[in-house]
Amino acid sequence: MANVVGQRVRRREDPRFLTGKGQYVDDLQPEGALYVTFVRSPWAHAKITSIDTSAAAELPDTQVFAAADVELAVSPAPPFIGVDERMFRPFLASQKVRFAGDIVAVVLSGSRASSVDAAELVAVEYEPLPAVIDIEEAARDEVLLFEDVGTNICLERPLEPDEHLFDGCDIVTSGSIFSQRLAACPVEPRASIGQFEDGKLTMWLSTQTPHQDKMVLGLMLGLEPDQVRVVGPDVGGGFGGKGLSVEDVLIAYLARETGRTLRWTETRTENLIAMHQGRAQRIAFEIGGTQDGVITAMRWRILQDAGAYPGIGSFLANLTALMASGVYQIPKIEIGVQAVVTTTTPTGPVRGAGRPEATQALERGIDMFAADCGLDPAEVRHRNFIPKDAFPHQTAAGAHYDCGDYAGALELALKSADYDGLRAEQSRRRQTGTAKQLGVGLSTYVEVTNGINETEFGAVEITSDGGAIVKTGSQTQGQGHETTFAMIVADRLGIPVEKITVIKGDTDQVARGTGTYGSKSTQIGGAAAAQASEDVVAAAKRLAADELEANPEDMVLDLERGQFHVTGAPEPALSWSDLASRLETKGLLEELAKEADFTAAQPTFPFGAHVAVVEVDTETGAVELQRLVAVDDAGIIINPLVADGQVHGGVVAGIAQALFEELTYDEDGNPQNSSLVTYGFPSARELPSLERIEMVTPTPINALGAKGIGESGTIGATPAVHNAVLDALSPYGIRHIDMPVNGERVWRAIRDAGHT
Ligand code: MCN
Hints:
Elements: H1 14-18, E1 34-40, E2 46-52, H2 54-57, E3 62-66, E4 74-75, E5 89-90, E6 96-97, E7 103-109, H3 112-121, E8 123-128, H4 135-139, E9 153-157, E10 171-179, E11 191-197, E12 200-205, H5 210-221, E13 228-231, H6 246-258, E14 262-265, H7 268-274, E15 281-289, E16 295-307, H8 312-322, E17 332-341, H9 355-373, H10 377-384, E18 393-394, E19 400-401, H11 406-417, H12 419-432, E20 436-446, E21 455-462, E22 468-472, H13 481-493, E23 500-504, H14 521-548, E24 555-558, E25 563-566, E26 569-575, H15 576-585, E27 593-599, E28 607-617, E29 623-633, H16 640-659, E30 691-694, H17 712-728, H18 743-752
Parallel strand pairs: 1-14, 12-13, 16-17, 22-23, 29-30
Antiparallel strand pairs: 1-7, 2-6, 2-8, 3-7, 4-5, 9-17, 10-15, 11-12, 11-14, 15-16, 18-19, 20-28, 21-22, 21-27, 24-25, 25-26, 28-29
Helix pairs in contact: 8-9, 9-10, 9-17, 11-12, 13-14, 16-17
């Protein structure tokens, strides 16, 4: 049963999901639980003058808590971000609210309906303050969110501009890209259940990071590690949005305080307002180079919206800065980073998390620079690629790339898309003057996975029937780990996938872990499982040798048959089940259980090239995406079927940013997209069939040769589509339209250019 890696094995978890048998937090239905409703501020920025919970608390089986009733103070931002602690988020706002959605009280009641009714009775008086939703305005510090801090700037890496940076350049192209605010929008919203029994807290969470959640809950509640258990059952999507939230900590705390089991499942509206949001970053860029398209210098000023309380969202701008050089050899790069607080929902990671922003600015900038040089955008990319033989490669932005073949990826994408044919069709349409103009957009990208180079845990144990159990610190939210981790182990043990069980997401069952984000699970969690498998095989060879009275050095594992025998003598042989049952009788089966903690030497850098083809109706502004050709190289692919799914999902998210999705606030800070009617989540109707082309450049960084694939599509697709729309409009002299480049924006741009 060896060599299953690389095969299109169907996801083992799908029958469960497709037949409605998935077990999500809300399915757990604990007996006698109280339902939690959070009372949230309707104001973006206001002083709280009074909170009266008495009417609500009079309802039967109902309890109400405001800031004065809880000992939890603030939710600290991770220390590595370096945020001023006066900007930490209070669990319950008491003096001031800083976004529409800030929590002012928590209601616990016997039913979902009575909990919502009671929340309506909590009377809060506010004294409104001016909202600040625009990042440039926030940076001017005219309206302050934290008066005692005296500035809205929460993180800064100042730019010290070199006035000679562009000396000698024939052309300096400048522009600015706003990567608009997005929602992670998992199909399953956030949900948690908290229970405190016999001195132990158990939290069932819809989460990406059970072990980290356990650690933080312990710290916040003053509990020892053996007093906290986090269980992440099936998770219906996370997309970067699901870790331990302030809501979860409040539920844990109140479960302990009240002695009652508490449950919360947010509504879609609550999810779109209160779960952290992504992107919300502007990059002002200058790209300088020669007339023949060689880039020699670049300057970026990054301004990141942290939302009301700075956390990971502000830190992500550093990841953007790290990836500024992209796939290009740019000798001189200068970057300044600022993050500011605004009276909006706090920001955090959403699929791509900091890297899409870099690719969007760089790839749009390259197209503009190519236009200024009068050259084809593909040609300019070719003139600036880091060559295939220059790896490992350190960029001027500070990234250390493992391996790559960027020119190869673009060539493959152009050939697959028939680039020359597309350009010919484009010029034919331009000549005929038809309203339906064609746009062809390119993007070549490199991204970083396992970006902060973490360690992941994996354990493998042989069961008495000769099967295996894999325990992993990674936590699947739909990525298919139950299949791919079993495949990784199957290939090393020679045990069929069907006999391998993957256990994840329960801190009482899995010793350690970091969780799933940054597309790192396979390259570190998978590598840990592979390492543990190899350690099991080494132990098994020694024990099989004892059983067969042979020399351990002479033992081999026949991976096809899953049997141990002496080299060159297939008989006598011991299968895994023979060996396991013999060891079990001797009380030695646990010798076939091994743990590994895998740390890589550095992150990996997946890359690729996307080509988008759009048809733009120049009379109505309507944009129709006709083709999306995606070449994504994540090294050795464990399961191409799963990777296809990851790329499809990722590419759709990328297309959605370019064309459809955007979270906005009105000038008073009211969220404008609090349902899926007003948030432009696309459906299959808006999308063409995607064309995925695999390219494989194995990484030397781990034994699997694997890089991450979970976010690549999101990073590559957006600028390809954005560039395609602007390519269609280039004859009108239109150089920029903000994303999402929807029909209205395109129509306005054409009108403003004097062409309607
Ligand atoms: N894989 C593979 N070969 C590789 C790399 C990965 O076969 N060379 C497989 C993996 O084994 C895994 C899947 O592809 O089954 C994704 O693996 P990986 O790239 O390691 O990423 P993670 O498992 O760490 O997933 C995280 C990534 C992120 S950061 C977001 S956001 C995201 C994404 O995955 N959120 C998702 N994909 C998602 N897919 C679903 N369905 N739901 C989400 O919330």
